[in-house]
């Protein structure tokens, strides 16, 4: 029966060759001749939509980060408010918002960008984070405009809170009557959102350098990169000057035990021998300090802790002095970061050379 086996083998080879030729012909017809209709007025061939969407869902589920990556403060009002500000700037035009319908043109896209009011019913927080950070091919959904991943979470927080949100709540949350920056930073840069830095305590030099770093990407933040991409370069100096001209107001908080530990670190009096004195660059200091360094007095503790963590992990970026902070923070523990944040946030809000105990 050897001849039968040989015949069978020749048949298989022949059939494979025919299939390859047919496949090549189909590819030529679809790709080269243009048989496949790419018009957004026409739907996909039967089964294509199902195959693509199923692939999409499976890919997201396979690659999404674990639940342990979700921050503990995800659903706090400050995180939701910060996410709302970015959503208005970068997402609303395609996906709409509470009381803001998608435009007629957007509704003609294929696939149509969905309303995100119920997105939290379908996707988990880690899955939403992955989709926002990575984007989706061939859908019009872009990737996050930065490598940094932590500032994606506020947008996830907003999407989770959007279900049932009234147009009035949305309007109040994103009101920019005081100017675009005020949505997140508040009037005159005095932010009441603990996830957003106060700008009134910073110098004109530091603000200008930071905005320039956001614009050219040397300081990594998808939120701020989006903002700076919409502002003319000439406005950087004007913004820096306007925020720096504000005189900080507020009082010091009663020192707590954690703040006392942070003071010891800031003065290099703690047990750690690898953490330099923070006050030499950030105050309080007896001599004038380089205005390229930020004042930390009265800055929000969650924001300070986030920045120190980014420095420690090498993800912060910034101006020419960035290398100093990479070295200064690389050995900080989570407990030391919390203590330093508690100490500086408890000081009376002040400019760099006005920082006092």
Automatic annotation (TrEMBL):
Among Pfam families, the record links this protein to: Cytochrom_C, Cytochrome_CBB3
| Any one GO MF annotation of this record | electron transfer activity
Q: Mind listing the UniProt keywords for this protein, alphabetically?
A: Electron transport, Heme, Iron, Membrane, Metal-binding, Transmembrane, Transmembrane helix, Transport
Q: Coiled-coil stretches, from where to where? A: none
Tell me what this protein is called. Answer: Class I triheme cytochrome c
Residue stretches making up the Cytochrome c domain: 257-348
- Parts of the chain that traverse the membrane: 12-36
